[in-house]
Amino acid sequence: MPSTVLVGAQWGDEGKGKVTDLISGDYDFVVRYQGGNNAGHTVIHGDKKLALRLIPSGIMYDHITPVIGNGCVIDPRVLINEMKMLHGEGISTDKLVISCDAHLIMPYHIDLDGAAETRLGKHEIGTTKNGIGPAYKDKAARTGIRVQDLLDEHIFREKLETALSYTNLVLGKVYGMKTYTVDEICEEYLPFADVIRPHMAETAQLLNTALAQGKNILFEGAQGTLLDIDHGTYPFVTSSACCAGGACTGSGVGPKAISKVLGISKAYITRVGSGPFPTELKEETGDLLRDVGGEYGVVTGRKRRCGWFDAVIARYAADVNSLTDMALTKLDVLSAVDTIKVCVGYEADGKRYDYFPMQHSALYPKHVKPIYEELPGWKGQDITGCRTFESLPANAQSYVKYLEERVGVPMSIIAVGPDRDQTIFRGWSSR
């Protein structure tokens, strides 16, 4: 059966939660394959908006098995609170499955994350300070602690003692912060096993068995392509593989199982945190897009930086993810502007770039000048009630077609508002 990877094609916050919620009803499993509670997806439940930080958006459907894959890092306190929140809203988490190989975020990871950002000062990465990076760092250093380790107190203590032998030196000697004992962390963390144990599984086996039985899977990415640890604007990136390839390593499912890759892009572009942003608008147009689009982080509440659609980035995302389709979100926000600009290339240090430059230093304001093409807008025309492509204003149709031509990928889903029904399906099929 065909399976799909859903991936952000910009710097995250593209509206992946809504799109997952829209299409996940066609799938049997929804798998979160990377990241931690540094990502937030907003989904609609009745007349309420719910912010999910760890649990896959497929939790909203009774027939779906939501899976947190091995590529994720999990703060058990956040996970359990999110489960309680969903229960309070009448949404069952009984079918939630958690990989036994996912890594745990420990209290010291959060301390290290905040201390490292403070130490970097004006060069800070812009992390959410939730311990994500330090948890992945320990995973790579082979001193991480996994979900399965909660099931054996002896192993948990042994691994924790090894981790603290180094981490306490960094906390105490480098940052002058509180250190930890094995006993105090065990007292807090070992009881989490009682809650997590019923949900724990060898998820690679589970998913491959499901595929063999003819089930299909939606892999739900967090963050976005330009925040990928390898393919993003390093070092201003997250600590995991956000691109479509990460769905394989983060779940244990091979690439032959994937038939579609759906990239999510806003009709403009935003970024949270530090790092280069060639099309950023630092004047009233940027403020207008932020206010009309409600551009504030789901997890942090931070203001998102706003700019015009960047076709250079979109083409890059199409390549590194092998996008077969795109979903264009927040098209309705552009009803607030007279004319619309699209970045089709960069000029930096006397050289033109039509593709993502090899040296990311070319993307910084002192070097880069976006090359724009301007299109007429449809200011003042409310498109939130449109349900077919043909019902959109002519200029809105032209804008979508222009982006398709520039990116080379069909815009198969168009969101014209935040609600589930404020969507135009234009050739999308999960099959």
List the helices and strands and how they pair.
Elements: E1 3-8, H1 16-23, E2 29-32, E3 41-45, E4 48-52, E5 65-68, E6 73-74, H2 76-88, E7 97-99, E8 103-104, H3 107-120, H4 132-141, H5 153-174, H6 182-189, H7 192-196, E9 200-201, H8 203-212, E10 217-220, H9 246-249, E11 258-266, E12 269-271, H10 284-293, E13 305-307, E14 309-310, H11 311-321, E15 325-329, E16 339-348, E17 351-353, E18 368-376, H12 394-407, E19 411-415, E20 423-425
Parallel strand pairs: 1-10, 1-11, 2-5, 2-10, 5-7, 6-8, 7-9, 11-15, 14-16, 15-19
Antiparallel strand pairs: 3-4, 12-13, 16-17, 16-18, 19-20
How would you portray this structure in words?
With 431 residues, the protein is of the alpha/beta class. It folds into 3 domains: 3-100 and 200-261, Adenylosuccinate Synthetase, subunit A, domain 1 (Adenylosuccinate Synthetase, Chain A, domain 1), CATH 3.40.440.10; 103-194, Adenylosuccinate Synthetase, subunit A, domain 2 (Orthogonal Bundle); 266-425, Adenylosuccinate Synthetase, Chain A, domain 3 (Alpha-Beta Complex), CATH 3.90.170. Helix content is 30%, strand content 21%. The protein is built from 12 helices and 20 strands. Strands 9-7-5-2-10-1-11-15-19-20 form a 10-stranded mixed sheet, with helices on both faces. Strands 14, 16, 17 and 18 form a 4-stranded mixed sheet that branches. The protein has a two-stranded antiparallel ribbon with strand order 3-4. Helix 3 (107-120) packs across helix 4. 48% of the residues are buried.
